Amino acid sequence: MRSLVFPRVSKTPSARPFAQLFRVIDLIHEALVDGVPVTKRDIYYKDVQLFRSQATVDRLVDDLAATLQLTRADLNVRASSKGLMCGSGVTMHMQSGETLELCDGDASLIPPSEDIKRFAVAQTLAWVLVVEKEAVFQTLCRLRLATHETLPGSGLIVTGKGYPDVATRQLVKTLADNLPARVPILALVDGDAYGIDILSVYKHGSTRMRHENSHLAADRVQWLGLWASELASLGIDKDALLPITKHDEKKARSLLKRENLPARWRKELQYMLFSRRKAEIEVLGAARATQESIADLTQAASFSHCDFNRERAGGSPGTPLSRYLVKKIGDACTESGHSSED
Amino acid sequence: MSLAFLHAHDGAEPHSDAVWAVNWTNADTVLSISADGVIKQWDSISGQVSRSRPPHTLGLVSLSVDPTGKLALYNTLEGLTCLWDLEDGELKGSFESYARGPGAETTEPSWSVSLNPRGGTYASTGGSGNVTIHSAEPGSFGERRATLTSGRSKFGMHCKYSPDGSRVAMSSEAGQIFVFDVASSSIQAAYSSHAMAVRSFAWSADSTLLLSASEDKRLILHDVRVSSSGKPGSGAVATLSGHSSWVLSTDISPDNKLAVSGSADKTTKVWDIGARAAVSTVQEQGEVWSVSWRPKPPAHGTAGAYVTGGEDGVVRWWRSAGAG
């Protein structure tokens, strides 16, 4: 709980926090009266001298919404889009009348939920993958993982480009609330404290927006990987792992202090602190040939031999990353399929 | 020459997570600490648990036992250091090294801890790369008494007093080993034999040798004798190579002839120090985080016994097969 006090005994004038608060209220009021939505960035630019930093505006808007027990959208403050998505089998119908058809090889910007009238999901959608890093997302897009043949069905890949913005979280939450139980929603994050924190934001909500948790926290999200403990089985040498930094250590220790931390997360964080190494997703590129990958190669050889018409070598092993994901997504789908049958 | 070491028995109840340290005490018991937050005392003959403490929330990362085998000092991942009396099973001291002290002094959580064999104090190391001496007296347990500065700010992975209590050594994540003289609180020697983290090291029973275990897959033997003129020993005198991944822990046998090492390559090796060669390699189930020799000199014609603890949570006893 924050309180602003005026006047205050201080070296610098103490009117600024008040002026900032009232200006934000003024601009939001204008947006509500005129019916023209504003973004937090717009608000900041209206008076850069007064606000001095974007973070101040962000904080004031969220605090106001929390105090008035409204959502940001109720204040007519739009979220700007940061997240990306790609995949097949999803069509979005916008308030403006446009239709957004998702494609498996190209990314689309995730629109804020207030712009979406409804969206339709094909029966063939079998999985959803939420990815932490944009670079990994672009790689998966390029590899057309969403329509990979060895997977049990087509999929949707989403990224929040790090800590997700509200629009991305709203999308994941809507999917979580409406998709059938047999469709797993999986998160691929780095095996470090920040990755686990991002997973926690999708799954349990963030502290800043906790007043909106009921429509932002998607508890159904499962942690697909990357786990430090599975690296040995993937043929990744310990020396390929990055050492943890002081920031990583501090973040990990603060995560471990949280109550109700899932046991798996605690185990991975402890292992990370004890070995003093973290498993970033890029480390998969360092995987040596393991039994599985050699088997993949021989399988690919037999495939390409008998079918010359395949556009891309569908049976090819692809990169270690796609091999890893295909196996894990496949396993997750089978498991969800079984548990939803009960 | 090869020596065979046979699997004697396993601990009766495994830990529910990795065993991060084991110690074969002079009371002929074995202590083990685990990532599951539990410390157990085992009877070496039967493998049964004779004492244990209720689990801590986080794992236990460091263990040190006094020369009588009756007091155990251990530290949790968050830096809660505890002194456990094994005779009556009571906690005689606990210290929150992560708590901010009065006067806003900069504090850092402890990582590795070591009891002074002469009693009264214990040493700890952590993120700052220095060794802090704390009181080990029940009344003032944990109070910081002195800081031994290494001059480097690399994470201190392991610290241990020499068995004669005159020196304390610390190894860092950057690979350096510092030996401090306790009486004068000054650096006596600094070794840069490794370029990668030295996760653990062992003193020989007579405090003349120091064997370091590093992520560079090697163990290096250091001569750390102090001559009467005060000149330090010659430093690195031997390299033991053979592991295919990080060497996680090591111990020197009571007669200074053999060394045992546990590695991330899931094997335990026994080395003949004089010949600088491995004489036994045993495959384990997971990474071997900790190894400890039986401190009692072995019977004539046998090479001794040791205990290991690793990723699978099982404490295992090994003994030599007999005269080679």
From TrEMBL, chain A:
| GO cellular component terms, A-Z | nuclear chromosome
- Which Pfam families did the record assign? TOP6A-Spo11_Toprim, TP6A_N
- Domain Spo11/DNA topoisomerase VI subunit A N-terminal spans what residues? 17-77
Q: Which cofactor does it need?
A: Mg(2+)
Catalysed reactions, semicolon-separated: ATP-dependent breakage, passage and rejoining of double-stranded DNA
- Enzyme Commission code: 5.6.2.2
Is Phosphoprotein tagged as a keyword?
no
Record: active site:
Y45
Q: Which GO terms describe its molecular function?
A: ATP binding; DNA binding; DNA topoisomerase type II (double strand cut, ATP-hydrolyzing) activity; metal ion binding
- Single Gene Ontology BP annotation: reciprocal meiotic recombination
Keywords of the record, alphabetical order, are: DNA-binding, Isomerase, Magnesium, Metal-binding, Nucleus, Topoisomerase
* Compartment(s): Nucleus
Topoisomerase 6 subunit A/Spo11 TOPRIM domain residues are: 127-286
Q: What class of enzyme is it?
A: isomerase
| InterPro entries the UniProt entry points to | Meiotic_Spo11, Spo11/TopoVI_A, Spo11/TopoVI_A_N, Spo11/TopoVI_A_sf, TOPRIM_Topo6A/Spo11, WH-like_DNA-bd_sf
Q: Which family does it belong to?
A: Belongs to the TOP6A family.
Q: What is this protein called?
A: DNA topoisomerase (ATP-hydrolyzing)
Give the originating organism. Dichomitus squalens
UniProtKB/TrEMBL annotation, chain B:
Intervals holding WD repeats? 12-52, 191-225, 240-281
What is one Pfam family matched by this protein?
WD40
Query: What keywords tag this UniProt record?
Result: Repeat, WD repeat
Q: Which CDD domains match?
A: WD40
Determine if Repeat is one of this entry's keywords: yes
- GO (cellular component) term, any one: nucleus
Q: What PROSITE patterns does its record include?
A: WD_REPEATS_1, WD_REPEATS_2, WD_REPEATS_REGION
Cross-referenced InterPro entries? SKI8, WD40/YVTN_repeat-like_dom_sf, WD40_PAC1, WD40_repeat_CS, WD40_repeat_dom_sf, WD40_rpt
Q: Which PANTHER family match?
A: SUPERKILLER COMPLEX PROTEIN 8, WD REPEAT-CONTAINING PROTEIN 61
The name of this protein is WD repeat-containing protein 61
User: What is the taxonomic lineage of the source species?
Assistant: Eukaryota, Fungi, Dikarya, Basidiomycota, Agaricomycotina
